[in-house]
Amino acid sequence: MKYLNTSVANVKNGEAIVVAELNGQILSGNKEAIELYNYPSLKAFKEKKLKDLMPEDFAALYPEEMTPEHVNFDGYYTHVCKRNNGELFACKLHTHYQNFSGKKLLIGHVQEMNDDVDLEKLRLKQIITVLERELKAERAKNFNDSYIQITQQFSRCYPMLSNNDLKICYYLTLNYNSKQISQQLNITTDGVYAARKRIRKKLKLKPDQDLVMVLSNCVKCC
pTM to 2 decimals? Predict the structure, then answer.
């Protein structure tokens, strides 16, 4: 399948493909998708949003915008979907981002399951999963907001610090140890030790001054 003259990646034979905006507005679909969801035409299909393809209880939890926490990057997950006539069915769903003419869109790969599946049990599992993802997304947002606010404070207090220095300082104020910081930033623990030494030198700290305490005071006072 192609959209805006670009082929959709990793399409398997016979599976339904749905192309949508990150806000859920459907932009296109192949003939398998139109048939699977029982829509009379592509035009009618494009008038819907992704939540219209879901059970109502699950659709009510659908986010305003699909963030990475909501996307099944690592394979196919079992879902309950809804046809145009209201019939529910089980499917395997894989979602990912793809750029089309410079715009990031959401791609859904859908395969109907013909196995005997307990739809009610699957719906409950699906709701639990989306709630967990919403919590993860909210935590990520809060983390990003906190990171921006605190690193801006560090920049005001200590304009000589580089962006890499600011990252180290941020995690230090969260009481992360060097091993934890190295895991977060994908660097070695020796790299963290060297960064801490460099930061102390830039801040002209005395040997008896605690770096974490100095940074914490900056957050409180700046």
Answer: 0.58
